[in-house]
Amino acid sequence: MKIGQVDLGERPVMLAPMEDVTDASFRLICKEQGADMTYTEFVSADALIRNIAATTRKLHIAEGERPTAIQIYGREVGPMVEAAKIVEEAGPDILDINFGCPVKKVAGKGAGAGMLRDIPRMLEITRAVVDAVKVPVTVKTRLGWDCNSKIIVNLAEQLQDCGIQALTVHGRTRSQMYTGEADWEEIGRVKANPRLKIPVIGNGDITTPEKLVEAFERYNVDGVMVGRASIGAPWIFREMTGLLREGKVPEVSVAEKFALLRRQIRESVERIDEYRGILHIRRHLAASPLFKSIPSFRPTRIAMLKASTLDELEAILATVENDIIPSLSAE
């Protein structure tokens, strides 16, 4: 699969863009664990052109994580074009436009998935961004605004005509948010459209290696994007690509998983500071499947998520790893 001149190989597996999740450290770890491509947190066009420090920091890409896409969102043509030019100077491999974020503070203001209610403006923005930069432009969007307006098959053609070089489809409508099940049959219909020539990347509910393989084999998508299942579990990319390419899910030891979480914590603190870095990493700790099978873990989980210093958090993790996890692994 190629996006412009970016060759991702056959059946690439990608880390989805997720706000407050896909920071530079997490992207690099996921890349090392097998992700074929990574995406930044989404970047507000308005904040970028105002040079807001917290936003401009999101443009940093480590060489080891490439290929990487920077994703932008906005609702006006001018700011989106200006932001696209700023992003291009940051040197991403791909520029992605977010027409899929469903949260109220974005979609409710007409950006992200809000654009699904104003297709002419969506297409105008897309054409203008494609024309403004030389880097390949892609789009990520949803099936439609609600169950009565699943317009993605026709919309995909229209976006292709604007000049985008790949399309990612999340298999839900905006009104679904993240509830219910992703409709992969609809994603499959997008891919099956003979008039669509650009790569189609499927996204939604890919939580296991088996579901990843099914997405490729049953729906014939060119690539698959993995989001929430990677939070607190970057090793999932090693497991997924192992089954996809070697026919077997590799064993990732408990010690390796703890080492990866510790690295995330340490690098989060180094990137920001101790207090905010630990706040940032709590989402990964809360979501990590590493702790979900441990009996009577609730008090320890609460303590872990309340820890406010690196030493305190490390002591809790060490207790869990040294006293509880080995006994589970030996069963």
Explain what this protein looks like in three dimensions.
By secondary structure, the chain is α/β, with parallel strands linked by helices. It folds into 2 domains: 2-233, Aldolase class I (TIM Barrel, Alpha-Beta Barrel), CATH 3.20.20.70; 254-326. The chain has 14 helices and 11 strands. It has helices at residues 24-32, 45-49, 53-56, 77-90, 104-107, 119-132, 152-162, 184-192, 209-219, 236-246, 254-271, 274-287, 298-306, 310-329; strands at 2-3, 6-7, 13-15, 37-39, 43-44, 68-73, 94-99, 137-142, 167-170, 200-203, 223-226. Strand 3 (13-15), helix 1 (24-32) and strand 4 (37-39) form a beta-alpha-beta unit. Helix 6 runs parallel beside helix 7, helix 9 (209-219) packs across helix 10 and helix 11 runs antiparallel to helix 12.
